[in-house]
Design brief:
The chain has 236 residues and is mainly beta. Helix content is 6%, strand content 45%. The chain has one domain: Mitochondrial biogenesis AIM24 (Double-stranded beta-helix), CATH 3.60.160.10. Strands 1, 2, 3, 4, 5, 7, 10 and 17 form an eight-stranded mixed beta sheet that branches.
Length: 236
């Protein structure tokens, strides 16, 4: 089993033995003996080739097509991408997390991996689907995420810009659209007409201090930043 840690805010260190999944091409160094292989169909989580084929088809059709590689061996692997900020999230048994595929750097082989329909993603470039990871084991499992800048961890209820959203726990957000006014028709709006509303008290919402260029082109930028070397998801 591998455990993930953060080094210098910009790298994930995976230590242990066995297998885990990572974004293809994310390896920058390693110590020990490892094999890196592109995963064509995607993780099956014990469901066989049928489940792997179904997962591949879902990702291809929905745009949640993260290029994945299998990392297998023992020792230490260093992972990074474009000097993005790295955080490790520990998922307790029975818990789950929804995360944008482009923000997912690596995850435990033991996590249930699938594409999930959410319906509210219509407000952003990412569409109606999200990558969903669930811990059905009796041990804590890790994932590593990347963000464009230091992430901000909010606690619901809250509203966020869909193009700054990285990940969340709990129920899916609801779309929230500002009321139309005369300013809408002359191009004098604030640029903040679309939001995602998380209504569940205590749910964790992670955003980044930048917005996807491929999104709606809104202008909000978080004013507060935190440095989080790790986040623990679970009910105490």
């Amino acid at each position: 089993m591998f455990k993930f840690d953060v080094s210098n805010e910009l790298m994930c260190i995976a230590k242990g033995n066995g297998r885990f999944y990572a974004k293809k091409g994310a390896m920058v160094a390693f110590k020990g003996n490892f094999r890196f292989e592109k995963l064509i169909l995607g993780p099956s989580n014990g469901g066989g080739i049928g489940k792997a084929l179904l997962g591949y088809a879902q990702r291809a059709l929905t745009g949640e097509q993260m290029p994945i590689m299998v990392v297998e061996g023992s020792g230490e692997v260093y992972l990074a991408q474009n000097a993005y900020h790295v955080d490790v999230i520990s998922i307790d048994p029975g818990d789950s997390i929804s995360v944008e595929s482009e923000n997912l750097l690596a995850f435990s082989e033991q996590l249930e991996y699938k594409v999930k329909f959410i319906g509210s993603g219509v407000l952003s470039q990412k569409g109606l689907f999200i990558t969903y990871l669930e811990n059905r084991t009796n041990q804590v499992q890790d994932i590593a995420i990347i963000t464009d800048g230091n992430p901000l961890v909010l606690e619901g209820p809250c509203c966020v810009d869909p193009d700054a959203l990285v990940a969340w726990t709990g129920r899916e957000p609801y779309p929230k659209v500002a009321e139309l006014s005369w300013k809408t028709f002359i191009g004098q709006t604030s640029g903040e007409s679309y939001h995602l509303e998380f209504v569940e008290s205590g749910q964790i919402v992670i955003i980044q201090p930048s917005e996807r260029l491929s999104g709606l082109g809104t202008n909000s930028t978080p004013n507060n930043r935190i440095h989080s070397g790790g986040v623990r998801l679970g009910i105490d």
